[in-house]
Design goal:
Layout lengths: L2 H15 L15 E2 H10 L6 H10 L5 E3 L5 E4 L21 E6 L3 H7 L9 E3 L3 H9 L4 E6 L1 H6 L4 E3 L5 E3 L7 E2 L1
Antiparallel strand pairs: 1-3, 2-3, 4-6, 5-8, 6-9, 7-8
Length: 180
């Protein structure tokens, strides 16, 4: 992926997940933005987008961060929202026995005290495989992968969801359900 392509992907992540208002963009409650409106708003900020480029960014994204509506007129971030405008109603789903959370070793003390909390995001993000969790953890420092007893949590009444891109989502995860 070229530098410009990466920059555009990061720009889309920023406005569709966190700060749509910085470019004058509106999202509906399910996180959808009108692509024609996104193109106009992005252009005012010096980002040249068109439908073909947006479709290419979606198709080529290894993390599948974005979802295109069936009619091709709307786009949204699959998960990871911190904006209060968005409250995607994911379908509750039974998780596998274990899920994984990648983080940095420097956060372990806090996790042992509080468990995993979503902080500014709406959900804690979990992976179905350890490799992905390692990649996530590396972004924050020396990585460690935590194993989450997801099915046990679910059986105790905790809710789990899965975003369009396969990322598992849950509310706070008490430490008693975490294995280091």
């Amino acid at each position: 992926m070229s530098k410009n392509y990466t920059e555009l992907s990061k720009f889309l992540s920023y406005v569709l997940r966190h700060q749509p208002e910085t470019i004058g963009l509106s999202l509906d409650e399910d996180g959808w933005a009108v692509i024609a409106e996104l193109i106009i708003c992005a252009d005012k900020q010096g980002y040249r987008l068109d439908h073909k480029l947006i479709q290419s960014l979606i198709a080529d994204s290894d993390k599948k961060r974005f979802t295109l509506s069936e009619d091709g007129l709307y786009i949204r971030a699959a998960q990871g929202h911190s904006t209060q405008q968005v409250n995607i109603k994911y379908q509750e789903k039974t998780p596998p026995t274990l899920l994984f959370h990648g983080t940095a070793t420097r956060f372990l003390l806090s996790i042992r005290e509080q468990g995993l909390i979503s902080k500014t995001r709406q959900y804690v993000h979990l992976s179905s495989d350890e490799e992905t969790a390692i990649q996530v953890g590396q972004r924050h420092g020396k990585p460690i992968v935590l194993k989450i007893k997801a099915l046990h949590m679910f059986e105790q009444g905790f809710k789990f969801y899965q975003a369009d891109n396969g990322v598992w989502l849950s509310g706070s995860i008490p430490y008693k359900f975490i294995q280091e």
